[in-house]
Amino acid sequence: QFNQRGPLPKHGFARNLGWRPAPASKEGDRQSSVCLELTDSETTRAWWPARFAAQLTVVLGAGSLRVQLVVHNTGNTDDGAWDFTTALHTYLSVEDVGRARLGGLDGCARWDALADARGFQQGPVMFLGEYDRVFSAPAGAIHLHDGALGLQITQSASLSNTVVWNPGGALCARLADLPPDGYRSMLCVEAALIDRPITLTPGQQWQGWQELRVLPAP
Questions:
Q1: pLDDT value at 121 more than 80
Q2: Cα→Cα distances 166→10, 41, 77, 93, 189, Å
Q3: Do residues 90 and 67 make contact, with C-beta atoms less than 8 angstroms apart?
Q4: Which residues contact 89 (CB under 8 A, 6 or more apart)?
Protein backbone atom coordinates (compact mmCIF):
# COMPACT_ATOMS: atom_id res chain seq x y z
CA GLN A 1 0.00 0.00 0.00
CA PHE A 2 1.38 3.42 -0.97
CA ASN A 3 1.41 5.92 1.90
CA GLN A 4 -2.00 6.12 3.61
CA ARG A 5 -4.10 5.28 0.55
CA GLY A 6 -5.81 2.27 2.07
CA PRO A 7 -6.69 0.57 5.35
CA LEU A 8 -3.17 -0.64 6.23
CA PRO A 9 -0.49 1.21 8.22
CA LYS A 10 1.40 3.88 6.27
CA HIS A 11 3.18 2.25 3.29
CA GLY A 12 1.77 -1.14 4.23
CA PHE A 13 3.55 -3.93 6.10
CA ALA A 14 5.98 -5.47 3.58
CA ARG A 15 8.76 -2.93 4.19
CA ASN A 16 8.87 -3.70 7.92
CA LEU A 17 9.17 -7.49 7.72
CA GLY A 18 12.08 -9.82 7.14
CA TRP A 19 12.36 -11.15 3.58
CA ARG A 20 13.96 -14.54 2.91
CA PRO A 21 16.76 -15.10 0.40
CA ALA A 22 15.49 -16.89 -2.71
CA PRO A 23 17.46 -18.55 -5.53
CA ALA A 24 19.16 -16.05 -7.82
CA SER A 25 21.47 -16.58 -10.77
CA LYS A 26 24.24 -14.55 -12.34
CA GLU A 27 23.20 -12.79 -15.52
CA GLY A 28 26.31 -12.54 -17.64
CA ASP A 29 29.94 -12.12 -16.69
CA ARG A 30 29.52 -8.52 -15.53
CA GLN A 31 26.22 -8.82 -13.70
CA SER A 32 25.13 -10.40 -10.44
CA SER A 33 21.79 -10.52 -8.68
CA VAL A 34 20.14 -11.20 -5.36
CA CYS A 35 16.52 -12.18 -4.84
CA LEU A 36 14.44 -11.79 -1.67
CA GLU A 37 11.00 -13.25 -1.03
CA LEU A 38 8.07 -12.47 1.26
CA THR A 39 5.00 -14.72 1.54
CA ASP A 40 1.85 -14.59 3.62
CA SER A 41 2.11 -15.79 7.21
CA GLU A 42 0.27 -15.46 10.51
CA THR A 43 2.01 -12.10 10.90
CA THR A 44 0.85 -10.70 7.54
CA ARG A 45 -2.65 -12.12 7.92
CA ALA A 46 -3.06 -10.13 11.13
CA TRP A 47 -3.01 -7.03 8.89
CA TRP A 48 -4.29 -8.42 5.60
CA PRO A 49 -6.01 -11.81 5.04
CA ALA A 50 -4.80 -12.43 1.48
CA ARG A 51 -2.49 -15.21 0.33
CA PHE A 52 0.41 -13.83 -1.70
CA ALA A 53 4.07 -14.13 -2.66
CA ALA A 54 6.34 -11.19 -3.47
CA GLN A 55 9.85 -11.36 -4.87
CA LEU A 56 12.29 -8.47 -5.06
CA THR A 57 15.29 -8.97 -7.35
CA VAL A 58 18.24 -6.58 -7.55
CA VAL A 59 20.56 -6.93 -10.55
CA LEU A 60 23.90 -5.11 -10.46
CA GLY A 61 25.76 -4.53 -13.71
CA ALA A 62 28.58 -2.33 -14.97
CA GLY A 63 27.24 1.17 -14.30
CA SER A 64 23.67 -0.02 -13.78
CA LEU A 65 21.28 -1.18 -11.09
CA ARG A 66 17.90 -2.80 -11.76
CA VAL A 67 15.24 -3.50 -9.12
CA GLN A 68 12.29 -5.74 -10.03
CA LEU A 69 9.23 -6.58 -7.94
CA VAL A 70 6.97 -9.54 -8.74
CA VAL A 71 3.67 -9.98 -6.87
CA HIS A 72 1.65 -13.20 -7.11
CA ASN A 73 -1.84 -14.05 -5.86
CA THR A 74 -1.29 -17.54 -4.46
CA GLY A 75 -4.84 -17.99 -3.21
CA ASN A 76 -7.35 -20.63 -4.28
CA THR A 77 -10.29 -19.87 -6.55
CA ASP A 78 -12.56 -19.54 -3.53
CA ASP A 79 -10.25 -16.92 -1.99
CA GLY A 80 -11.09 -14.33 -4.64
CA ALA A 81 -9.19 -11.36 -6.03
CA TRP A 82 -7.35 -8.59 -4.20
CA ASP A 83 -5.71 -5.33 -5.24
CA PHE A 84 -2.62 -3.44 -4.19
CA THR A 85 -0.49 -0.36 -4.75
CA THR A 86 3.25 -0.11 -4.32
CA ALA A 87 6.40 1.98 -4.74
CA LEU A 88 10.09 1.18 -5.02
CA HIS A 89 11.49 3.66 -2.51
CA THR A 90 14.66 4.61 -4.37
CA TYR A 91 16.84 6.86 -2.22
CA LEU A 92 19.63 8.47 -4.22
CA SER A 93 22.75 10.19 -2.92
CA VAL A 94 23.38 13.62 -4.46
CA GLU A 95 26.13 16.19 -3.97
CA ASP A 96 23.76 19.11 -3.38
CA VAL A 97 20.00 18.78 -3.90
CA GLY A 98 19.75 22.55 -4.31
CA ARG A 99 21.75 22.29 -7.53
CA ALA A 100 20.28 18.99 -8.76
CA ARG A 101 18.01 18.98 -11.80
CA LEU A 102 15.57 16.26 -12.81
CA GLY A 103 14.63 16.21 -16.49
CA GLY A 104 12.21 14.07 -18.47
CA LEU A 105 9.00 14.87 -16.54
CA ASP A 106 8.10 17.93 -18.61
CA GLY A 107 4.40 17.84 -19.52
CA CYS A 108 3.55 15.04 -17.08
CA ALA A 109 0.45 15.37 -14.91
CA ARG A 110 1.39 15.83 -11.25
CA TRP A 111 -0.18 15.97 -7.79
CA ASP A 112 1.49 18.22 -5.25
CA ALA A 113 1.04 16.38 -1.94
CA LEU A 114 2.03 19.45 0.09
CA ALA A 115 -0.51 21.82 -1.47
CA ASP A 116 -2.99 19.09 -2.50
CA ALA A 117 -3.00 20.65 -5.98
CA ARG A 118 -2.96 19.10 -9.44
CA GLY A 119 -1.28 20.43 -12.55
CA PHE A 120 1.35 19.66 -15.18
CA GLN A 121 5.13 19.86 -14.91
CA GLN A 122 6.83 22.57 -16.90
CA GLY A 123 10.57 22.23 -17.46
CA PRO A 124 13.02 20.38 -15.21
CA VAL A 125 12.25 19.66 -11.57
CA MET A 126 14.30 21.77 -9.13
CA PHE A 127 14.48 21.68 -5.35
CA LEU A 128 14.24 24.87 -3.30
CA GLY A 129 12.63 23.37 -0.18
CA GLU A 130 10.44 20.45 0.87
CA TYR A 131 9.23 18.64 -2.25
CA ASP A 132 6.63 15.85 -2.48
CA ARG A 133 4.89 15.22 -5.82
CA VAL A 134 3.38 12.24 -7.61
CA PHE A 135 3.74 12.32 -11.41
CA SER A 136 2.22 10.28 -14.17
CA ALA A 137 5.23 8.29 -15.33
CA PRO A 138 6.86 9.60 -18.52
CA ALA A 139 7.08 7.46 -21.62
CA GLY A 140 10.84 7.99 -21.83
CA ALA A 141 13.74 8.16 -19.43
CA ILE A 142 14.23 10.55 -16.52
CA HIS A 143 17.64 12.18 -16.23
CA LEU A 144 19.13 13.33 -12.94
CA HIS A 145 21.89 15.93 -13.30
CA ASP A 146 23.91 16.27 -10.12
CA GLY A 147 26.88 18.53 -10.67
CA ALA A 148 29.20 16.75 -13.10
CA LEU A 149 27.38 13.45 -12.58
CA GLY A 150 24.36 12.08 -14.40
CA LEU A 151 21.92 9.23 -13.95
CA GLN A 152 19.35 7.81 -16.36
CA ILE A 153 16.24 6.41 -14.68
CA THR A 154 13.74 4.20 -16.49
CA GLN A 155 10.79 2.14 -15.28
CA SER A 156 8.36 -0.42 -16.64
CA ALA A 157 5.00 0.67 -18.02
CA SER A 158 3.37 -1.38 -15.27
CA LEU A 159 4.58 1.24 -12.77
CA SER A 160 2.43 4.13 -13.92
CA ASN A 161 3.62 6.80 -11.47
CA THR A 162 6.87 8.46 -10.46
CA VAL A 163 7.21 9.94 -6.97
CA VAL A 164 9.80 12.66 -6.32
CA TRP A 165 10.49 13.55 -2.69
CA ASN A 166 12.92 15.57 -0.61
CA PRO A 167 12.04 16.50 3.00
CA GLY A 168 13.65 19.92 3.00
CA GLY A 169 15.32 21.42 6.06
CA ALA A 170 12.39 21.83 8.46
CA LEU A 171 10.98 18.31 8.04
CA CYS A 172 14.43 16.73 7.93
CA ALA A 173 15.20 18.17 11.37
CA ARG A 174 12.24 16.19 12.76
CA LEU A 175 13.14 12.86 11.13
CA ALA A 176 14.92 10.41 13.39
CA ASP A 177 16.62 8.50 10.55
CA LEU A 178 18.31 11.50 8.89
CA PRO A 179 20.86 14.00 10.23
CA PRO A 180 19.57 17.60 10.38
CA ASP A 181 21.26 18.48 7.07
CA GLY A 182 20.68 15.07 5.45
CA TYR A 183 18.15 16.49 3.02
CA ARG A 184 20.97 18.25 1.18
CA SER A 185 22.53 14.98 0.02
CA MET A 186 19.51 12.80 -0.80
CA LEU A 187 16.69 12.61 -3.32
CA CYS A 188 13.94 10.06 -3.85
CA VAL A 189 12.88 9.23 -7.42
CA GLU A 190 10.49 6.32 -6.95
CA ALA A 191 8.86 4.13 -9.57
CA ALA A 192 5.36 3.57 -8.24
CA LEU A 193 1.88 2.20 -8.84
CA ILE A 194 -0.54 4.54 -7.06
CA ASP A 195 -3.39 6.04 -9.06
CA ARG A 196 -4.69 2.77 -10.54
CA PRO A 197 -4.41 -0.20 -8.14
CA ILE A 198 -3.72 -3.57 -9.74
CA THR A 199 -6.24 -6.36 -9.16
CA LEU A 200 -4.95 -9.93 -9.17
CA THR A 201 -7.19 -12.99 -9.28
CA PRO A 202 -5.91 -16.31 -7.85
CA GLY A 203 -2.98 -17.53 -9.92
CA GLN A 204 -2.26 -14.16 -11.53
CA GLN A 205 0.97 -12.25 -11.08
CA TRP A 206 2.26 -8.73 -11.77
CA GLN A 207 5.76 -7.39 -12.20
CA GLY A 208 7.38 -3.97 -12.39
CA TRP A 209 10.93 -2.66 -12.45
CA GLN A 210 13.12 0.43 -12.22
CA GLU A 211 16.60 0.72 -13.73
CA LEU A 212 19.33 3.24 -12.88
CA ARG A 213 22.16 3.72 -15.33
CA VAL A 214 25.17 6.01 -14.98
CA LEU A 215 25.42 8.52 -17.81
CA PRO A 216 28.81 9.02 -19.48
CA ALA A 217 30.70 12.13 -18.46
CA PRO A 218 30.05 15.13 -20.76
A1: yes
A2: 18, 34, 43, 11, 9
A3: yes
A4: 15, 188, 190
Q: What is the CATH number of domain 14-213?
A: 2.70.98.10
**Does residue 9 have a pLDDT over 80?**
no
Supply the pLDDT for residue 218.
62
Residue type, 166: N
pLDDT in tens, 132-164: 999 999 999 999 999 888 999 999 999 999 999
Domain ranges of the chain: 14-213
Listed in sequence order, the residues at least 6 apart from 94 whose beta carbon sits closer than 8 Å to its beta carbon are 100, 144, 146, 185, 186, 187
Q: Residues 44, 45, 50, 53: is their CA dihedral positive or negative?
A: positive
β-bridge partners, 209:
68
Spatial contact of 168 and 129, defined as CB atoms under 8 Å apart: yes
With contact defined as beta carbons under 8 Å apart, do 93 and 185 qualify?
yes
The answer to whether the CB of 72 falls within 8 A of the CB of 90 is no
- Contacting residues for 174 by C-beta, under 8 A, at least 6 apart: none
Q: Which residues of 5-42 are buried (b: 16+ CB within 10 A; e: fewer)?
A: ebeeeebbebeeeeeeeeeeeeeeeeeeeebeebebee
